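Hi W.,

Here's what went into the run:
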Amino acid sequence: MSTIAVFIERRSGAIKRAALEAITAARSHAQRVIALEIGSNEADVLADYGVDEVVSITHALLERYSSQAVAEAIAQWAKSRQVATLFFGATAMGKELAPRVAVLLEAAYVPDCVELTTSERHLEAVRPLYAGKVRATVRPLTERAVYSLRPNMFTARPAEQPSTPERSTFTPTLSQEQCRVVVTDVIRNEGKLDVLEADIVVSGGRGMKGPEHFVLIEELAAVLGGAVGASRAVVDAGWRPHSEQVGQTGKTVSPNLYLACGISGAVQHLAGMSSSKVIAAINKDKDAPIFKVADYGIVGDVFEVIPKLIERIRALKQSSVS
Amino acid sequence: MFVMTILACISYVPDTAAKIGVTADGSGLELGGAKYILNPYDEFAIEEALLQRERHGGRVVALTVGSDAAKEILRTALAMGADSAVIIPATGLDSFGVAANIAAYAKAIDASLVLLGRQSIDHDSFQMASTVGALLGVPSISVVSKLEIESDRVRAERDIEGGKEVLEATLPLVVSVQKGINNPRYPKLPEIMKAKSKPIESVEPVAVSPRAAMVRYQVPQLKRANKILGDSDADIAEFVRLLHEEAKVI
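Here's what came out:
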């Protein structure tokens, strides 16, 4: 595992944290870490994270993002440099791109890794199966392997000493035929932090009793600097948008803190949040399944507890500022 | 005239509520007794195939790769309105093996649109659309919540962190679909009865070498602090203190 290449995902110019997490993980399993960029960008952050080389992949057909063309370009680069191990963040972009690259490289694809270990010269990965009920250790059987790393499972840590990365440019051979899908627009949910990107997620369930009471969840999320999540029941009832749904038919999140309010914790919900670092819950039913997976819990009425909690947390934040 | 062939790929998976265990030596899974169902996301794939056929004509083929028992979900697809159903009887394949079989069949029937659920709830890897697309040498779009087709031009929306991407593509195309794209129909009893006697074609699997192996399994150890408090003011203060000082997350 002498060299690992890491795909650098950017959104609106900024490097996604998942890419920095992947670089940090790569540093502990490879002598040489290569950052793969689409286009040419500032490398300051990559130097802080200790990468040995930054490759800019450039081509006129890559000006509009095309997963098909980018996968082709990355595969051509990896073949030209005989790089056998590639890391991607398991983000919306990474999860779409990495399997395509794997096919083009005749490589194993190891998705959604939460741990990496080197064993008998193989880089093995642990990944959750069956909504987290079981974990499997996956070993690639091919010479090349492509991994995607679940966000927030590996810590992004700058190197002790910033590096002075070598710079190189790679121009792939691409045709219009390899560019038959393109992104033409990105619609942002303005002003809203996404559950997939937030360090703290505050979710509400049926126990909130109606859409109008979600102002409490919003306020609690705001004071914590977190995102608002929702259970399937309240999304299906039309109280909240599907983009906020956490669980099996929604999003799988691993924030530092997941705070479930008025959510009983059906197995479908647990499927989407059980890998959170810390789980806290407020529910009036002491036997609610959510308490079995919670680190901290309050058995009580959300309508009484949340306002007091907001007040306490606000006081805490103010005292730590002053 | 161009007739659109739509391939809806579906999988037979243990119900989410199923208990999944690991053998004592960690070498295998214990799925005994688990109830198997049509993968929930694949219902959206079947429905989308039917809706696109209603708009553009053509035919819908439902395909599964799996054991004989998986014919049950092909009957569901037939009852919903698929024109024909195909099983590739292969078990024990890795994800790449399944994708290779789907791709080989899609090629054999010259499918212009391959639809799948965004993930199967057993392995949750979100990889099938990309893998099948790459094997066919055609584009793919994952986690699609809106799909519009106009002759061979496609406009799609897919969910990303904090929003949506709008994409344009051309057929042939592989698409994995997301909840919200449609409301799957419930087949009516006469259709369910009729589906029972419809033929299910069996297609010989293609042999491919596996690319990855699951070498060990474990049940994750729940290391949760599990400090459950009451709702007094003192309890709420303690709850905040624990999150701040012990867990250091706020």
